[in-house]
Amino acid sequence: MGNRFICMTKKDTRDNNHGSKSKRMGRSQRKLMAEEEFLHRQALSMALQQNHLSQRFDGSMSRRIGSTSSRRRNLSDSFSNGKQAPDFLENIKFKKFVLVHGEGFGAWCWYKTIALLEETGLVPFAIDLTGCGIDLADTNSVTTLAEYSKPLISYLENLPEDEQVILVGHSTGGACVSYALEHCPQKISKAIFLCATMVSDGQRPFDVFAEELGSAERFMLESQFLIHGNGEDKPPTGFMFKKQQMRGLYFNQSQTKDVALAMVSMRPIPLGPVMEKLSLSPEKYGTGRRFFIQTLDDRALSPDVQEKLVRDSPPERVFKIKGSDHCPFFSKPQALHKILLEIAQIP
């Protein structure tokens, strides 16, 4: 027994080391899976509470998702206790990301992105637009892009005078990013359009989806998804896809548990803001630094439509996520995170 380790061959040593590494990797993988499952349960719990609140329209909750995770608190503590932050953080001048959801979604949809950014030492903040997520406004009462974007604009206007953020907009949230670039350009260091409605001056967000939904005029007359919140004899106030349509359009590559989260969390989409033509000037919107992230397995905003958007209004740079559906924060969170970090480090 005492000579066992001395007599081991190189092969025995390699096999033993390989076994130890496998065990360590197995433990690490299980830990990561457990942490992701914890985050998902937390997001689902908040979504269920939000679903209850959105029906009652009372009460209040934080607009920021996931800030109670012990894993992220421990990371923040380790930086404050003298441990060195990642070297690349020195190359990032503005570390705050403001995340703007798309149609029907809310701040809840960014839970994976928030966790990944915070783990890296960055500062994410997810906004609920008016009538979305846990915002208590009735969706049927939101008629303009200004009203819809008000939580975002208020947040930007209340930043310290010398502070700027990296703004990320998903899907129709891209119109809110464009609106913010026009009204608060001094607060935005970079604007990232994530498979988003990066519209030109005089264009409506809805126009970008015309390939899937038909013309705006036809949609208003014939769509089965319209909601008449003020009565059937009044103009429609919003729209909401059926669950089966949403699964096919938005989540064709997303995990079942994230689709389940979305099914209990998504709210009707205000019609007025997506039908409004944007007024964008070269002096304000035109001076913003824009970046576009394309999703290449997207059925809601096809890759061809996304290519047309970047041709019609070329951004500073274009990035692509292979195998991603319309919701890369669900289907490809690591790839999205990598691109966000790369954009943040661009001088």
What features would you describe in this structure?
Keywords: Hydrolase. Residues 9-18 have a biased composition (Basic and acidic residues). It comes from Salix brachista. Residues 60-69 have a biased composition (Low complexity). The chain has helices at residues 10-56, 70-80, 111-119, 145-148, 150-157, 173-183, 205-208, 210-213, 216-222, 243-250, 256-265, 271-275, 303-312, 328-331, 333-345; strands at 96-100, 123-127, 165-170, 188-194, 226-227, 238-239, 269-270, 290-295, 317-321. The protein has 347 residues and is of the alpha/beta class. The chain has a single domain, classed as 3-Layer(aba) Sandwich (Rossmann fold), CATH 3.40.50. The model is unreliable at 1-18 and 48-84 (pLDDT under 50). α13 links the parallel β8 (290-295) and β9 (317-321). It has a 6-stranded parallel beta sheet with strand order 2-1-3-4-8-9, sandwiched between helices. α1 (10-56) packs parallel to α11 (256-265) and α3 packs across α15.
